[in-house]
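User: Here's a protein and a ligand (S-adenosylmethionine). What would the complex look like?
Assistant: Let me lay out the input and then the predicted complex.
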Amino acid sequence: MRLRNIAGSREVIADSSFVVKDPETKKGLWKKEVFGNDNDIHIEIGMGKGRFLMDMAALHPDINYVGIEKYSSVLLRAIQKQQQLLLPNVYFIRMDAEDIAEVFAKDEVSRIYLNFSDPWPKDRHAKRRLPSRQFLERYDSFLIPDGHIEFKTDNRDLFNFALEEVEPAGWMLDAVTYDLHNDERMNAGNIMTEYEERFSATGNPIYKYIISRKGSK
Ligand code: SAM
């Protein structure tokens, strides 16, 4: 998602207390210094306008949520929503997730959500895909041993690619569906993202997997 560059979005982000600036200085300190509690941290990488993250945060006040988004113009929308909701358990980071391993310490995050990640269809860009083995290696550095990644997409090619990355990267598939909204078990409690609502309205099936580290059970 890339909205038109919105004048002033960088200034709003710089001034917003909901955005953690210099996030690498919080590495290992998120619970204590940012949230001021000892609750688990769940993150969404590529959160877009943050609807999923904030719906989840409202439903689960005992979980700390961090939303990561690359583009200021998109993050601005999430900040505007949070200015109304004032959820105490939500913070944002504006960054490219390529550097995510610099931001969270070993065992600092309990769950990672990847929702409708950019497909990067060219082979030479495969390592930029958020469920690629290069990203799985980064996630491995800060996810708790029995932590999960939940990935949803409507893009079959990206989903097939993501499935093929799981084993070689040392992870294992805990659950998979090729039609989330018609899968009673996996759809139970599903919170729709903005893209999910848009794509499923056109009749596209939604694919989802849940993965964890091999040997974590
Ligand atoms: N997750 C939202 C949803 O499902 O409605 C937004 C999906 S949108 C297709 C993908 C989002 O991920 C965009 O807002 C994009 O800017 C962001 N994104 C893509 N690659 C990223 C990266 N490397 N780091 C941070 N954000 C990224």
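Summary: Residues 9-213 form a domain with the Rossmann fold fold (CATH 3.40.50.150).
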